[in-house]
Design the sequence.
């Protein structure tokens, strides 16, 4: 693992309908030194916790009954009752098909991680969203982290965002 980051002041919310996965993710977060770990066994319960408690990071399963992870992300990013539309969100899933990844990306997920979880993989995703946050973009039909992972230096079109100030970048001081 890379040099250990300090997460003492970070509050994480883990949402998964599988109790076993909640325990695994929480155990990893405790080992990483998270100061506060909240868990919810449904997206509805998780969104209520998110609304009521300041949260610095959300880790959410993709497939859940009633309200799935994509629905939750949409509520967090664009819901009128959302308390932090810029919160980093890591989506966990056993569904690694391109359609699932694209749907999550297009709704505003910050990072996507396939199950099974590994401590190293989860740690790297967390460090990425906290220490290297992406700017947020708001355009018709999308609000969330900039979906582009690399800069194409050959593109000089009017929609190039390199020379534009970010809409807002959220950095957690851990």
Sequence:
């Amino acid at each position: 693992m890379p040099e250990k980051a300090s997460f003492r002041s970070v509050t994480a919310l883990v949402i998964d309908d599988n109790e076993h996965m909640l325990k695994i993710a929480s155990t990893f977060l405790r080992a990483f030194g998270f100061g506060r770990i909240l868990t919810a066994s449904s997206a509805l319960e998780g969104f209520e916790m998110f609304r009521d408690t300041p949260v610095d990071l959300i880790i959410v399963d993709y497939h859940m009954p009633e309200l799935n992870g994509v629905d939750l992300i949409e509520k967090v990013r664009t819901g009128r009752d959302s308390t932090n539309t810029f919160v980093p969100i890591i989506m966990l899933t056993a569904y690694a098909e391109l359609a699932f990844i694209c749907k999550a990306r297009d709704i505003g997920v910050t990072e996507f991680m396939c199950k099974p979880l590994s401590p190293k993989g989860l740690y790297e995703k967390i460090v990425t969203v906290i220490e290297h946050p992406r700017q947020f973009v708001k355009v018709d039909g999308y609000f969330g982290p900039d979906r582009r992972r690399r800069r194409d230096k050959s593109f000089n079109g009017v929609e190039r965002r390199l020379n534009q100030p970010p809409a807002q970048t959220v950095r957690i001081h851990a």
Remarks:
- The longest strand covers residues 11-15.
- Residues 11-145 form a domain with the Rossmann fold fold (CATH 3.40.50.2300).
